[in-house]
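seq as requested:
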Amino acid sequence: MRTRRIAAAFAAVALLPATAAALTASQASAQTSDEIQAELDERHEALEVIIEEYNLKNEELEDANELIAEIQLQLPELEAAALEANERMGDIAATAYTGGNMTMVNSVLSGDPSDFADRLMYLSNLTDAENLLLQDSLAQVAELETRMAELEALKASADEILGEIEAKQETIEDEIAALEEEFDEAYAEENPQPTREDWGDYSGSSTVVQFAYDQLGDPYQWGGSGPDSWDCSGLTQAAWAAAGVSLSHNAASQWNETARISRDELKEGDLVFYHGLSHVGIYIGNDQIIHAPNSTTVVKIADMYYGSIDGYGRP
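struct tokens:
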């Protein structure tokens, strides 16, 4: 039976590995950010298991939902047939009653409907045709009852299985959210953000570098072009604009807008390009740059060789 096959598939949820072990509450207290990150990785792996299990069950439910829809479409016709069958059985019983066999009619109409036909066979005044009609009527009533039972079982199984998986998913997601908060706190404690005062003042003569110094400590913002937050190319664009030079707000475009120079030719204010022209910083001398790295930190001074260098440019 298709219904039993689907129910068996639902039962496979019991095969979920011992994710309960992965769902234990975090014991993070005075943990390092690396230790918390390891826990986060474990939780994400556990969440993947649950999500994939959820996806699998959803696919199995598609078959179940098709059957549910099929049964629901059949129900009006089955209900009408069962109503008509009950009316026919009532007519047969009425026939027996008019024959004077009231005691036997009462015994036939009482008791378990499953053996109704057997009991009704005892009515001596039933014809063969009536018996056949009776059997057909009972079969139609039984079909309606069977299909309705299948429908309820499928709905209950679907709700129970998905509810169980969703609860496990929610538990892990809550743990991940808590761990991420703990990670942010631990990381911030281990890596305090530098402030403008940490770098001192610029003593050179480059307008570009002076502008960049003035932005030290400002937050990173994707697409930021000032005046209080920046991304990498927004900072270099604004720094060179302070010197009267127009650049695009895009690292690769700035590469095309600048002249190629060698490492030995680098001067304060020149641009250093990284990571396949996806990042750019401002050279400030002594193998250092000022750049806006990413959302985990601020505009800062960094070692020029912190990442893979594509080349150098001078506007």
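The CA atoms of residues 150 and 156 lie 10 Å apart.
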